[in-house]
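User: Design a sequence. Structure:
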């Protein structure tokens, strides 16, 4: 679990029946001011600091073998910034629950995603910075991936649960199933990559149409480039698409959209 300096943090454990009041420890030292109710126990940190980082464990006095633990990682900067000690640089918008490295400003991507903003979904059964490694037996099920801090550990994309053996429920995707599909215009949710869009729609949620129009024998289309976002380019089905004409069409297209 990764947070930033100054974040409000709730560490939560749920259980399936009443075992009484839970006991919390951090790095084997007992904690106070915990709250147990409705089959859950919560430890709250009002404003996270580096001293809050560590291993948190919750268990029950009458059932010491029943419990759970998590590691809390605290980034060296407030959310959205990097470059300690001043932390004056703005982080990139790391997608798909990627984490901004407080020392370099780079996005550390969850297993199954790549790109400078973790914008590219690689699909199932792959991991690594360039998605160039494959899981054995054609499945990353039951595998925990631990990446450099401040990312920590997670399941591969498409999997969740304590042992990473549970497929993402319908409508969720990504590492630990932390992402929610909000597919529009007939898009469908695939648990490893997110929205799969029909041919005429683009964007993370299939929210943008692929606009086509033609003038002077040049046809231009709007497409979603994972590196730069929306862009215009020639439709190469049209022969000898001249670059100058393409620029004219782009200006006309922008004018039409602004109206």
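Assistant: Done.
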């Amino acid at each position: 679990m990764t947070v930033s300096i100054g974040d409000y943090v709730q560490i939560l454990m749920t259980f399936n029946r009443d075992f009484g009041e839970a006991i919390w420890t951090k790095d084997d030292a007992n904690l106070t001011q915990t709250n147990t109710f409705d089959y859950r126990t919560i430890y709250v940190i009002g404003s996270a600091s580096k001293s809050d980082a560590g291993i948190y464990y919750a268990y029950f006095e009458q059932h010491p073998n029943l419990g759970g633990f998590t590691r809390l990682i605290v980034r060296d900067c407030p959310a959205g910034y990097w470059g300690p000690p001043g932390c004056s640089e703005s982080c990139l918008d790391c997608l798909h629950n990627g984490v901004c490295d407080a020392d370099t400003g780079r996005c550390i991507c969850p297993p199954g995603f790549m790109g400078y903003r973790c914008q590219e979904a690689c699909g199932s059964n792959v991991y690594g910075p360039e998605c160039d490694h494959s899981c054995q037996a054609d499945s990353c099920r039951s595998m925990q991936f631990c990446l450099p801090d401040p990312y920590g550990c997670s399941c591969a994309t498409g999997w969740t649960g304590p042992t990473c053996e549970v497929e993402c429920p319908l409508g969720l995707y990504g590492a630990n199933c932390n992402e929610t599909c909000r597919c529009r215009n007939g898009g469908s949710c695939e648990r490893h990559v997110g929205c799969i869009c029909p041919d005429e729609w683009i964007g993370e949620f299939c929210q943008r149409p692929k606009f086509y129009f033609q003038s002077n024998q040049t046809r231009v289309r709007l497409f979603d480039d994972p590196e730069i976002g929306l862009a215009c380019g020639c439709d190469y089905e049209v022969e000898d698409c001249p670059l100058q004409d393409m620029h004219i069409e782009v200006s006309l297209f922008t004018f039409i959209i602004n109206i």
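The chain has three domains: 2-74, 81-167, 210-258. Confidence is low (pLDDT under 50) at residues 214-218, 224-232, 234-259.
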